Amino acid sequence: MKTVTVLRTFNPAEADLISSMLNAAGLHSEVIHATAALMVDGYALATGGVLVQVPESEADEARQLIDTPSPDSA
Fold first, then answer.
1. Is the pLDDT of residue 1 over 90?
2. Which domain holds residue 54?
3. pLDDT tens digits along 13-68
4. Span between the terminal Cα atoms of the chain, in Å
5. Are 66 and 6 in contact (CB under 8 A)?
6. Distance (Å, whole) CA 11 – CA 34
7. Contact 66/12 with Cβ under 8 angstroms?
8. Residue 48 lies in a domain
9. Local confidence band at 74 (pLDDT 50, 70, 90 cut-offs)
10. What is the rounded distance in angstroms from the CA atom of residue 61 to the CA atom of residue 59?
11. Beta strand pairing status for 3-9 and 30-32?
12. DSSP string over 35-71
């Protein structure tokens, strides 16, 4: 199954939060590079960030969920 990146961040906590939100919505997300970014200073920057990925078939729905403001942010 091919996966695509729907979020790139330098903050592992943000990636985990977004991944949890996507999983709660029934999508199948995973976080890439988070552990290494926490262990080695500069690793997230060197690798292009901490990535949230989903199966290609779920990418559009995932991006829509990420782009929708939460009610708390208003």
1. no
2. 3-68
3. 999 999 999 999 999 999 998 766 666 666 666 667 899 999 999 999 999 999 98
4. 37
5. yes
6. 8
7. no
8. yes
9. low
10. 6
11. unpaired
12. HHHHHSTTHHHHTT-EEEEEEGGGHHHHHHHHHSPPG
